[in-house]
């Protein structure tokens, strides 16, 4: 049904890579309309016509395992970015906002009125009003049960053998083998495969977030005759996994650039941004910029600004994580 739609694949690929993209790209309305029509047909299909219901689910979602069961009043933005494993069940009124991938493992049960949202709008009202946004994927493991009314925000990973309590708002990653609940959702207790409480293993620190946004960088000019200084990005990795941090640099007057920064396990690195940094030895041009950091493991990031004049210096630190 949707294979014939001509859409701007360049802009859509930005969306899939987690880069800022414009939601008015060519063909987007047609893709969304096609998904809505499939949702509408599915929601009207009689409950006893199980064959047609399964056909529609397989046409709506990108990948579907064995024995899918989706109750009516389902909504998807695109549909093809939703991938589900075997024995997937979603109760009434579930909402999948999927400009980025939403992936479910095997034996995932979702209660009524749950929402999974991969779209993230800019904090900057001017960018937001120009209909720019990012999208960050959601991943859910095997054997997970969501109580009714749960909400999962962009970029969250939920492990396997997990129960998410009713009404939870999941704003950060949830590990394997636990019961979690609340707003924001947090681990209540750890469990084994039979649901019995177990003591949490002694693990290394796992502080930080995988996504950081610094929205108001401004590289100071340098020289003897004018104010000069630098900005530095400090990344702390408290985990036992080496961090690979993809950095997207946004500008007001040019296309985004990218670089990769690396921080060893349980290490801290300070990157002087007025020098070439990263695998690409990238140098940020002078002027206003923003940074989006996406790490494979949780990190803590700080952007520090030093602006030197005679007898004058200051640091400014700001950031948004999720």
Which properties best describe this structure?
about 325 residues, mainly beta, 4 helices, about 40% strand, globular
Would you kindly provide a brief summary of this structure?
It contains four helices and 29 strands.
Q: So what's the overall shape?
A: globular
In oligomeric terms, what are we looking at? single chain
Distance between the termini: 36 Å
State the helical fraction: 10-25%
Biggest sheet character: 8 strands, mixed
Kindly report the average pLDDT value: 86
Structural class: mainly beta
Backbone CA Rg = 22 Å
What portion of residues belong to β-strands? 35-45%
Count of helix runs: 4
| Uncertain regions spanning at least 5 consecutive residues | none
Strand order of the largest sheet: 3-6-9-14-17-19-20-21
Total DSSP E strands: 29
Q: How would you describe this structure to a colleague?
A:
The protein is mainly beta. It is 13% helix and 39% strand. It has four helices and 29 strands. The protein has helices spanning 9-16, 28-44, 50-60, 125-129, and strands at 21-22, 63-64, 69-70, 75-76, 82-84, 89-90, 95-97, 102-104, 108-110, 115-117, 119-120, 132-135, 138-140, 144-146, 151-152, 157-158, 162-164, 169-170, 178-181, 186-191, 197-198, 209-219, 228-237, 243-250, 257-263, 267-272, 287-308, 317-318, 320-321. Strands 3-6-9-14-17-19-20-21 form an eight-stranded mixed beta sheet. Strands 22, 23, 24, 25, 26, 27, 28 and 29 form an eight-stranded antiparallel beta sheet that branches. It has a five-stranded parallel beta sheet with strand order 2-5-8-13-16, covered by helices on one side. A hairpin with a 4-residue loop joins strand 19 (178-181) and strand 20. Helix 2 (28-44) runs antiparallel to helix 3. The chain is globular, with a radius of gyration of 22 Å. It starts with 8 loop residues before the first helix and ends with a strand. The model has no long low-confidence stretch (mean pLDDT 86).
């Amino acid at each position: 049904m949707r294979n014939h739609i001509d859409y701007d694949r360049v802009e859509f690929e930005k969306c899939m890579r987690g880069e800022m993209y414009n939601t008015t790209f060519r063909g987007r309305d047609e893709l969304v309309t096609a998904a809505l029509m499939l949702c509408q047909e599915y929601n009207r299909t009689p409950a006893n016509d199980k064959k047609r219901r399964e056909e529609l689910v397989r046409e709506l979602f990108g990948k579907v395992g064995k024995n899918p069961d989706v109750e009516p009043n389902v909504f998807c933005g695109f549909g093809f970015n939703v991938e589900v494993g075997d024995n997937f069940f979603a109760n009434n009124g579930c909402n999948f906002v999927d400009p980025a991938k939403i992936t479910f493992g095997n034996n995932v049960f979702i209660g009524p009125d749950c929402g999974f949202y991969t779209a993230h709008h800019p904090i900057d009202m001017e960018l937001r009003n120009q209909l720019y946004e990012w999208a960050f994927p959601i991943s859910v493991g095997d054997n997970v049960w969501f109580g009714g009314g749960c909400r999962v925000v962009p970029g969250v990973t939920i492990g396997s053998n997990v129960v998410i309590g009713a009404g939870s708002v999941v704003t950060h990653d949830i590990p394997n083998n636990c019961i979690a609940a609340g707003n924001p959702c947090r681990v209540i207790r750890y469990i084994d495969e039979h649901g019995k409480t177990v003591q949490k293993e002694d693990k290394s620190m796992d502080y930080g977030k995988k996504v950081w946004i610094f929205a108001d960088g401004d590289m100071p000019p340098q020289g003897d005759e004018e104010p000069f200084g630098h900005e530095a990005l400090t990344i702390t990795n408290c985990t036992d996994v080496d961090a690979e941090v993809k950095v997207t640099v946004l500008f007001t007057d040019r296309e985004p650039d990218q670089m990769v920064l690396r921080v060893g396990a349980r290490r801290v690195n300070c990157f002087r941004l007025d020098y070439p940094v990263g695998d690409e030895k990238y140098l940020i041009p002078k002027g206003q910029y923003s940074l989006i950091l996406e790490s494979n493991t949780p990190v803590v990031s700080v952007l520090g600004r030093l602006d030197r004049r005679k007898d004058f210096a200051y640091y400014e630190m700001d950031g948004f994580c999720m």
